[in-house]
From TrEMBL:
GO terms for molecular function: fatty acyl-CoA hydrolase activity. Coiled coil: none annotated. Residues 131-140 have a biased composition (Basic and acidic residues). It comes from Ilumatobacter fluminis. Residues 128-266 form the Acyl-CoA thioesterase-like C-terminal domain. This is Acyl-CoA thioesterase-2.
Length: 271
């Protein structure tokens, strides 16, 4: 069977993992606009889905931390091996290794927490003056029928994105957490490249720089729907030794602070 592309793949199909023995699952892949390698957000979302399969449904994910080890290929499925590190009274911890024939492509740790009735405080939000997704001031950077993305450049030059999945998702909170994990890798790389002295606002900057995600973390603060718009307020924190760090906060259009993200990216000028 041919590998689906980002124009034809269904996100729910990507999250539908096939059991292959105890705590082991296999997931399908897709071709993305750049071709030749997998989207890191897909592997993170699938690894999180595999971890969720081993945790009580009443204990949602609150954070994940992952390292991208080598590029994945869309030409073969991905195998996810889950290790149950601990199940405590309030928290559960899982480790997931994603593998293809070349070896490990991702190592992910995820922590899950039983809900607690404690203080709920939000700092920040979506600025009133921010262009909304349908505003002509935004530019379309969507991926076919999979992901809708609208870029916003603020007056100070910062780059942020409105992002949502173009998918008919069920009401399952676990699916939406995985969807947010998927989207979280679609925001950080451009703000990091924009810091480079030779970026110069080029729209084709991918052709000038070699880049890759190195490690990625998401903290899930509150439930949200991944098929609704999220504002990813991204901040590049500097470049050094061919690496750039980007942090971001994800808010729903109504201002709910859904998640915080940190990613370090590889950034080399092509010579």
């Amino acid at each position: 069977m041919a590998t689906p592309t980002y124009r034809t793949v269904d996100f729910v199909d990507l999250l539908t993992l096939e059991p292959h023995g105890p705590d082991t699952y296999v997931g399908t892949t897709a071709e993305y606009p750049w071709g030749g390698r997998l989207f890191g957000g897909q592997v993170v979302a699938q690894a999180l889905r595999a971890a969720i399969e081993t945790v009580d449904a009443e204990r949602p994910v609150h954070s994940l931390h992952s390292y991208f080890i080598r590029p994945g290929t869309p030409d073969e499925p991905v195998r996810f091996e889950v290790e149950r590190l601990r199940d405590g009274r309030s928290f559960s911890t899982r480790q997931v290794v994603a593998r293809q024939s070349a070896g490990a492509i991702l190592n992910l740790s995820a922590s899950f927490q039983s809900p607690e009735d404690e203080a709920d405080v939000t700092v920040g939000g979506v600025p009133d003056a921010l262009p909304r997704p349908d505003d002509p001031e935004t530019s379309d950077h969507s991926w076919g029928a999979l992901l809708e993305r609208r870029k916003v450049v603020s007056p100070d030059g910062r780059i942020g994105y409105w992002i949502r999945l173009d998918a008919a998702l069920p009401d399952d909170p676990a699916v939406h957490a995985c969807g947010l994990a998927f989207m979280s890798d679609a925001a950080p790389s451009r703000p990091a490249r924009a810091l480079h002295p030779e970026f110069a606002g080029r729209e084709n900057d991918r052709h000038w720089f070699q880049g890759a995600s190195l490690d990625h973390a998401v903290w899930f603060h509150r439930p949200s729907r991944a098929d609704e718009w999220h504002w990813f307020d991204a901040r590049a924190n500097g470049l050094s030794n061919a690496r750039g760090l980007v942090t971001a906060d994800a808010y729903t259009e109504s201002g709910v602070h859904a998640a915080s993200i940190a990613q370090e990216v590889l950034l080399r000028k092509k010579r």
